[in-house]
Amino acid sequence: MTYYEDLYAVAIDNYGIITSRAARALGVSNVYLVQLARRGHFDRLGHGVYRLVDYSPSSLNKYAEAIALLGQGAYVFGASALALHGLAFTDSQGVTIASPTRTRKSLPEHITVVTVANKADIAAYEGIPSQKVADAFLACRALGGADMLLSAVESARKQALVTDDEATALRREIKTGA
Predict the structure, then answer these.
(1) b vs e for 7-39, b when ≥16 Cβ sit within 10 Å of the residue's Cβ?
(2) Predicted structure pTM score
(3) Where does residue 43 fall: left (phi above 0), alpha (psi -120 to 50 degrees), or beta otherwise?
(4) Separation of CA 55 from chain center
(5) pLDDT digits (tens, 9 = 90+) for 85-129
(6) Which long-range contacts (CB under 8 A, 24 or more apart) does 145-153 make?
């Protein structure tokens, strides 16, 4: 296989995204990756992050792109973690990402970064690192909309995103505002 075919195979499995770090792991230099972008095979999203030009995006692309732009340790957070599962109505373009470290990267306006000091319990949904659904509900309870959150908890329980015990505890916490 050619380098381009190797990059293409990795990108297809990652929402059309390839990073310079992943390219290096395949033995592809940054120079070659930049050349491919200049030739129109990839769009540059940010420092070291590229997307296949001929990739048809899904509804999850905005999350995968935001994670790739922020780098290792980043994960989808709060209402965005709920929206990832169709459990919350949020800005259709905005994404909130948590990072364990402060970032100075220049990011698109639709990405909001929250620095979190605590090591969160993270799960991968469709290959995208995200705050666990139960923790995302707890992060969102201060935003209000208890009725919407209670309805979303029931949907999450039906989809097996939270256990019955977690759903009971979440309903209690949302109702009491604890």
Answers:
(1) bbebbeebbbbbbbebbeeeebeeeebeebeee
(2) 0.88
(3) beta
(4) 18
(5) 988 766 566 899 998 888 877 888 889 999 887 777 899 999 999
(6) 146/174, 146/175, 146/177, 148/88, 148/89, 149/174, 150/174, 150/175, 152/82, 152/87, 152/88
